[in-house]
DNA sequence: AGAGATAATGAGAATCATTATCGCTGACTG
DNA sequence: CAGTCAGCGATAATGATTCTCATTATCTCT
């Protein structure tokens, strides 16, 4: 499992004249095992360090930056003072998130109800390249509903 | 002009047992004169310093934090490594933005087409408190259309 | 007006996340 | 087998923001 994701990254690395290294592989595995989550660099660093204790923070940042540049990782901020990284199976560029203001968990919403809005925007002369929708609230668990 | 906004802030300051000071007034005036824009702390600092040269950066940050806490200022990040502040006339909590990836200008969209989406979300047990929608693209000016 | 209490300020240090620098290593090239 | 160079880890540097602390301004009570 995860072959697909790894192969896609390998492919992109080659295209960019970059090599797969043990460090990059370790970061990739962590990202892959946490697909769907929106991790901070520190969370990723700690998880990677667990399986490769000598890895440095800088390498993790470099790798995240590299992967983001390759288009296999999405780097975004959710009104916090830091970035979060989301490993994406596809080049989807539609991000819909639910962020719980209590526990901070970020869930994803696979809907795309914004087409009519985008059409209106395009009519104003603004060329839409991407969009991000974040809904803030309290998740079922924090409300005691689950 | 701007009486309304100033009065609302004064009211909230009193409610919070805080005082209006020359520094806070200077920040408020700058915010008010730039309503609709999404300024960085530094931009605000420079504009305030222009009319009050001895003011310190820390005071500006404290004031922004205070105003945000009073609910008269919205603090948000747009996938940058810093926050932007938007002075709001009302307690609206629906934010729709257009950000140009070329010039960085952020425009606002006064639409609210997300009700059906919110209903779906609420059905899943997630209590919606607020949401933010950002559309990335190129503005008419940067495309040479305007 | 004056004294004391308290809130706010300015300067600069501290912090946090992130990025840049630098010398070293280790894998390919010729 | 020497040379090159991407990638590495450690650490310094940076940029934005927050904290600390001594000083100043404001408010209250007299």
Summarize the SSE layout with pairings.
Two copies of one chain form a homodimer.
Chain A (H helix, E strand, L loop, with lengths): L2 H13 L6 H12 L5 E2 H11 L5 H14 L2 E4 L7 E4 L6 E7 L5 E3 L6 H9 L3 E12 L8
Parallel strand pairs in A: 4-6
Antiparallel strand pairs in A: 1-3, 2-3, 4-5
Helix pairs in contact in A: 2-3, 3-4
The structure holds a DNA duplex (30 and 30 nucleotides).
Provide structural commentary:
- The structure is a homodimer of 146-residue chains.
- Chain A is built from five helices and six strands.
- Chain A starts with a helix and ends in an 8-residue tail after the last strand.
- In chain A, helix 2 packs across helix 3 and helix 3 crosses helix 4.
- Chain A folds into two domains: 85 residues, Arc Repressor Mutant, subunit A; 44 residues, Dna Ligase, domain 1, CATH 3.30.1490.
- Chain A has a three-stranded antiparallel beta sheet with strand order 1-3-2.
- With 146 residues, the first copy, chain A, is an alpha+beta fold.
- Chains A and B meet through helix 5 and strand 6 of A and helix 5 and strand 6 of B.
- Strand 6 of chain A pairs antiparallel with strand 6 of chain B.
- Chain A binds a DNA duplex (30 and 30 nucleotides) through helix 4.
